[in-house]
DNA sequence: GTCTATAACTAGATAGAC
DNA sequence: GTCTATCTAGTTATAGAC
């Protein structure tokens, strides 16, 4: 367990819980039980630490996700939208083997990245991992060819919002589900709930 | 134009753009061209200022929204989900007469309230304006009675996410729509795009 | 590589003159 | 009600000893 990894692990959890702006380097280093100066020694700045936390997950996720989406694009038969969105499930859940609570942490971080930090993380991710996005769009087009590029643009952004918002408040939602419905739902359960929703949304009839 | 209102107007725009955490009282008071101490004199604290900004909009919105939803609940015929969600359109757009860019600002603030501020704003809004939420749930239940309370809970949160995320990034989305599709879409246009999406999502078949 | 100490700065809040 | 000046506590980042 190197200092660098101790910092990454502590930062990841704190960022997911309280956002990037809401988490100080002091909290991170005291949680990680390392010296305050270690962050700047190993990463240079807080911004670079944020990128490092996200990259660790993206490098794990993106090959699996790309391959799942490209498989769908290359199949002969037309996929359903539910099948396209289901392609995300296995790669996302694989993050739990990579790291405890990996799926949940990653999706929460993604949500933070879209609302904190005035979009710098969004820019970082879309320019650094474009193949994931392109193959996803191709897969959706194959499932619903009548959808124009413009309609698809809107609906995919709506979908991103659904996912990202749900995940950044997933702890609260799971608590409520436990209290109100006496259901112990985990992150996999939330993902399974959201797929029919976004698939129906993207597949809504064109006005 | 009182000092209090100058502060509210400046705070509203800055909070919407950069989040509650990301905006300092110094930025607000210099934007409003009032003294730094004025915020604490008039509102007591930053937290109270945030509440005041949100309340100004909620007090304008909630009577119209309640009445539109209650009308749907009292009608004899079964409404469609598109009709239920369309009940939000007129009250939301009326915020533009109340204040320039009112609709857009309010929805962006709502988005911030769900991700910044560790949920204190969510608690504030749900406890302070429960009738809106109750009548909305009743209307959705009338449109889709087969949906269990639990399924509805999830799908309404997904919907909240769709709206809130879309609106907090609506400036960026409208820019992209203009560049890529040469369409000048405004906030009313975005709302009209999102309604079929969320209606289809909430109305998705039960697994 | 890791530590202490501290620089340089920003935050929200307040006391007290006017 | 409005101002200046200031307090206290927090932030990121760095210099320099070990």
Short description:
The first copy, chain A, is mainly α and 207 residues long. Chain A contains twelve helices and no strands.
Tell me what the structure shows.
The structure is a homodimer of 207-residue chains. With 207 residues, the first copy, chain A, is mainly alpha-helical. Chain A has two domains: 1-44, Arc Repressor Mutant, subunit A; 54-202, Tetracycline Repressor, domain 2 (Orthogonal Bundle), CATH 1.10.357. Chain A is 77% helix and 0% strand. The first copy, chain A, has twelve helices and no strands. The first copy, chain A, has helices at 3-18, 25-32, 38-43, 46-74, 81-86, 89-98, 102-115, 120-128, 130-143, 149-168, 170-181, 187-202. In chain A, helix 4 (46-74) packs across helix 6, helix 6 crosses helix 7 and helix 7 (102-115) crosses helix 10 (149-168). The longest helix of chain A is centred in the first third of the chain and has 29 residues, at 46-74. The first copy, chain A, starts with a helix and ends in a 5-residue tail after the last helix. The relative contact order of chain A is 0.12. At the A-B interface, helix 7, helix 10, helix 11 and helix 12 of A face helix 7, helix 10, helix 11 and helix 12 of B. The structure holds a DNA duplex (18 and 18 nucleotides).
